[in-house]
């Protein structure tokens, strides 16, 4: 609940705009002492606010939520300055923008309509309807500012494209109904059990097909506005208010999941277009392999050269293996004279990096009888993969975690959870649980992004695109997960039904 103290210095009849009931939750509004649409005037007056506490249920833009939302952890403010309890939260940004909007409205006055009345924000949007929450009344005076526009929108599909497909669905449904009617009314008497079993299977497949048609009948495409996200939460010259993200990468056997593939995934994560202090990469090695550990150490060193290169020249994709293998004109849209020279040098650096990784793989094929020995002479704790302590190593993100140009790099952490015989470790689910616990202690990002070791980030702005949904002031409180389309390289592009998932994501 929020309480307010107002010392007004002037008087006058000021038109009070109406706001949605879900935007601001004040105790006096709920008790009926003050009309719900009332907004205090700040013209010729002094206003002081006091927020003794804020509940996530009453906070429209609470940064704590469940890319997926991370479950809230108990919060204790150990800071000697109590005012820092809300520093850096998303709510402060939203509240500050509202106050600025009220001041601007009082200074400029109400915007007149053609009939002489003033504009009031739209009312009656359903708080539980995700799609309805993105439908705004563009006559709202506060939405005229670019920073108050929605961060995403639904893109309608032309009826000329979707209606023919709907006609095909109806035709299939009619044929299916005729077929099932024939099957049910013509039983096979001399093989009744077999007939009954086949009819049950056919009905089951028919129901599953019908359920599969619902998202195809009303397909939804969404478009994000990254410029509005930057204006609202990541303004140039100001501390970024974007939410922190912990990115999880899972791997088990480096001989089945090549370390060079895992390294490319990690490099694409470290090079994402997102504030470096808001990104943390956790690699789970569920096989406790020294090969994965050494490969990650090499990857962290190569990242010091790769990350500034791709950010300087805006390289896409930011996984080096797939960037250098592209058969495209890599000089297109490049205007810096130094790009060709730097690209050649970086390609050479990457080839040398691959040779070092290949040497580690070749060495790992011959396991010593006494087990692996680390550089300091101590045995590798994971020599027994089924009985070993937990291991955590921070490669980047502490002192010295800078690239070749002196800029900070995102955090990179190696995690191998403890395993003991006689306990059920729940495979990948257990590894994910361990990553959640470790990241909660080290960084505790508000959101988590889960990737496999061979799922590199193809779009460096993907995390920002997810934030357009998760941090949208109207849509965000209703959203729990954001899923990206999954694409595959090395697949026959002419085969629609191969693993490229063209039919699933596009058709």
Automatic annotation (TrEMBL):
Residue numbers binding UDP-alpha-D-glucose: 250, 256-257, 286, 427
Localization (cell): Endomembrane system
Domain of life: Eukaryota
Recorded GO MF terms: cellulose synthase (UDP-forming) activity
Pfam families registered for this protein in UniProt: Cellulose_synt (PF03552)
Keywords on record: Cell wall biogenesis/degradation, Glycosyltransferase, Membrane, Transferase, Transmembrane, Transmembrane helix
Gene Ontology annotations of biological process type: cell wall organization; cellulose biosynthetic process; plant-type cell wall organization or biogenesis
Membrane protein topology class: Multi-pass membrane protein
Binding residue positions for Mn(2+): 428, 452
Entry-linked InterPro entries: Cellulose_synth (IPR005150), Nucleotide-diphossugar_trans (IPR029044)
A GO CC annotation given for this chain: membrane
Name this protein carries in UniProt: Cellulose synthase
Positions of region (Disordered): 1-22
